[in-house]
Amino acid sequence: MIKDDTIYDVMVIGAGFAGMAAALFASAQGLKVVQTGATGGIDFSTGFIDLMGVHPMEEGKRWNSPWAAIDAAVKDYPKHPYALLKRDEIAEAIDTFTDFLAQNGLDYVGHSERNSRALTPAGTVKRTYRVPKTAWKGTLALESKAPTLFVDFHGLKGFSGKQLVETRKRNWPGLKTVRIQFPSGSGELYPEHMAWALADPAVREKLVAEILPHCDDVEYVGFPAILGLNDPQQVVAQLEELSGKHIFEIPTMPPSIAGPRLRAVFDRGLPVLGVRTLSQKMVTGVEKLGDGSFQFAVGSGAAASTVNAKSAILASGRFFGKGLRADRNSVSEAVFNLPVVQPGNRDEWHLHEFFDHKGHPVNMAGIEVDEQLRPLNAGQPVHDNLYAAGAILAHQDWMRMKCGAGLAIATAFKAVKAMKG
Amino acid sequence: MNFFDIGFIIASVVCAVGIVRRLARWCGKPTSEVSVSSLSWHRRLFLALKIFFLEILLLGRTCRTGRIRWLAHCLVFFGFMGLLLFHAMDDTITARFFPAYESTLDPWQFLRNLFGGMTLIGLALMVYRRVRLRSLRSLTRFQDWAVLLVVGGIILSGFLLEASKIMSPAVFDVMVYDYFIPEDGSDITALKAVWAKKYGVVFPEEISDSDDVFENGLSLNEDSCVDCHSDTTSAFISRPLASALHPLAPALNRSRADEVFWYLHISLCLIALAALPFGKFFHPLTTPANLMARLGRRDAAKDDVPSPAIRGLGIDACTRCGECSLHCSVGPAFSVLGNSNILPSEKLISLKGFESEASLSGQALEAFAEGSRICTECLRCTDICPSGINLQDLWMASKKAVSKVAPDSNQAIRLMEISERAAPFGECSLPPISGLADNKESYLACVQCTTCTSVCPVVAVSEDPSRDLDLLPQQIMNLLRMGLKEQTLGARMVWSCTTCYKCQEHCPQNIRVADVLYELRNTVATRLREGECADERDG
């Protein structure tokens, strides 16, 4: 058992959007931060930062203004976590977050008032607030309906240029597609390996040589998101220089490398800010000490350790992130065993239809918090120094409402603000 | 021709033939690429002198491995060399340089006891070390005990011989007959009184020790004996030994123990001479020669690739001290697998067998090949070896040849066709290793997200993963959770995994992907090993 004698100001439990954001904001406030969490949902991210895209779920109504969508959702769901946040808080949170990403070589682009329209690998269009710079030109191409070539690869599953063209061609006539051999490797291909291979400028040159014969009559060329792991902007810039075309990425099916890119930025950037990151380690137990601070048991086996912190932000996610745990009869919270707001019994968790537009009640389950984002038990905060942020919060269905990253970042911002007082 | 002459001739012939055979074996190897470091002659001379004094005479290398070991070796080395030169070869050396030499005169009598005592203490320390260090004890073979036994036997029988001569009235009678002319009957009695009291002879009859008889004896002793006989108290081990044996003296004297011990002492010496070119007995010659040949190097640099003869010398320079095995990086693998060929000192013996004309076969070859494979070439054995053997070079030079005749199971499976690969694992009577792979719980949470495959560096470097690796990590997990373990065992992914654990670290569902792959490999290795044993049993 490794013992860390440091007493941290805050323990951030979770390494997804909410956890990363909380660690970033807390360290920016001058707090001494420790962060734990294994790979979870963030590796499955598209890389887009949604604020609010769809409401009401059952109508599937898409919104051009995220702010109007938030207002509408909060009106219908008064307990939605966005109800605890002011617009300028949300905006500041997202800007601070994307500024950090930009400083680390991952620029994000978008409008302040409205959502951008971005392409998905299925060829559908989703509304989102911020788009990685490498995908931005895709939104421009879509907006201007400029002639565009979609490139896909023999052996890369779940990404079909043909499907993109078929889905979009009705109101975007200048589309075409080509399937090529990836210049490095054949057979079954995986995005991360392709991205590694493109670290070699020679592979980029070969790739451009492969597509140039098909580029005569197009302005834009769309690739699956494989253009570099740590330096995608450089890769795109070089491809544009070599081809003379506008290049953009479309996310692939999960796990797309957009997620690992985000994670890599935080893995590199947070320790520089003084955050102690206990990466790939989970909190296995917690004890409240006499002075009100927490002592956490972290990790297992030889790498197990204890960590002391004056306060904590619970950003452990939902079921996939292991923040919520579902057993035969009920849903529980994994670290503090906090009360979970949930349907009365198991039969009510899911509707009859898997793809029911209304969304399943269990997806609205989670932790209820006060206006300072402190988890509640019978209307009272469970601990004065425990805050919750992100997908673990109750009364939201981020996947259907398209509000995941924004909600995570904004609630993390608010939790840090409340903690600072 | 007496016993000694005949024995000496036989032992010398055996010794000479043995040495010639060894030399022939060293030189009979086809010459391979040899490179010699480019040192100037005066640098070489300086190094040679340095090695002669520091490493050969003062055993500097041995000192690096432990003070007790060094002390033990120094005691045996100097003690035994002293006995060899001044006692065993007294006619040729001592008598020539010291014309007044008599073996029963001081300082020779004292020195003989001193050297013998040193050797015995040294040997006792060596035995203690071999018994005390558990890891060393398990390495100790017949030849190690044989050397200790023969050398110890020589010294002990020597002391017994000297003690039995001290107390023997028969020896006294012979000496008196040869060198003493009594003037009257009482002279012999007087001399006996002195020799009984002062020199420790145990006579069967009661000897008068009245003062005037003793005075007379002393003057007779002064006239006839002291020129050749120092007081036996200077034989500070043999004399107390004789005193200790006093109660047995009449019986020993009657049975002429002095002659018995003489035959024993001489026989052991001749055995040692005959055994010199065999096994560890040869190291007093080969180890200094090897130290000299290596000129003090402890590495295995490319500019110093030895000739086959020097390699042979190196193999034979092993003193089997076991230091290499005690320092071996992969020693822990030995404690798990139990294959002693993993340890350098034992692998060296197999290497000797492998290089011999008969070579190795069957399990011995497999064990040697496994030892050869597991070696990480970390150089620790070469660096520590007190005999300066270039072990690293020996391992590197033999690795290729070994893997050719006995490829590792990884290699063997990779070379198989797909259909062949599946076959050997299809039917197995062994109970399954019931670990992760057989346990449904291990994969319950798997969502087939391909993260394990995406992060896998082995998949990343493969040109066409499904062609080169058969199955990818997430596909193996999928087959396993469907209970199709047998279909995964031959997959090259399993056999190409570097156990970097990236898959396991990144798995969002905490599936122990790398541990599972490792277990699959162990399952097959166990079955193959079992199968080979069964084949060997069935003939």
What are its keywords?
heterodimer, A: 421 residues, alpha/beta, FAD/NAD(P)-binding domain, Rossmann fold, seven-stranded mixed beta sheet, 21% strand, B: mainly alpha, Fumarate Reductase Iron-sulfur Protein, Chain B, domain 2, 0% strand, elongated
Describe, in plain words, how this protein is organized in 3D.
The complex is a heterodimer of chains A (421) and B (539). By secondary structure, chain A is of the alpha/beta class. Chain A has 2 domains: 2-105 and 259-420, 3-Layer(bba) Sandwich (FAD/NAD(P)-binding domain), CATH 3.50.50; 121-250, Rossmann fold, CATH 3.40.50. Chain A contains 11 helices and 19 strands. In chain A, the strands form 6 sheets. In chain A, strands 1, 2, 11, 12, 13, 14 and 19 form a 7-stranded mixed β-sheet that branches. A 4-stranded parallel β-sheet of chain A has the order 8-7-9-10, sandwiched between helices. A two-stranded antiparallel sheet of chain A has the order 3-6. The two termini of chain A are 35 Å apart. Chain B is mainly α and 539 residues long. Among the domains of chain B are: 284-406, Orthogonal Bundle (Fumarate Reductase Iron-sulfur Protein, Chain B, domain 2); 418-538, Orthogonal Bundle (Fumarate Reductase Iron-sulfur Protein, Chain B, domain 2). Helix content of chain B is 67%, strand content 0%. Chain B has helices at 3-27, 41-57, 60-64, 67-88, 90-97, 108-132, 134-139, 142-167, 169-179, 185-199, 211-224, 238-244, 249-254, 257-275, 283-294, 308-316, 323-327, 331-337, 344-355, 362-374, 380-384, 391-405, 409-415, 418-422, 451-455, 457-461, 465-469, 473-481, 485-488, 492-496, 502-506, 513-538. In chain B, helix 1 packs parallel to helix 14 and helix 20 crosses helix 22 (391-405). Chain B is elongated and about 115 Å long. Chain B starts with a helix and ends with a helix. The model of chain B has no long low-confidence stretch (mean pLDDT 87). Chains A and B meet through helix 6 of A and helix 25 and helix 27 of B.
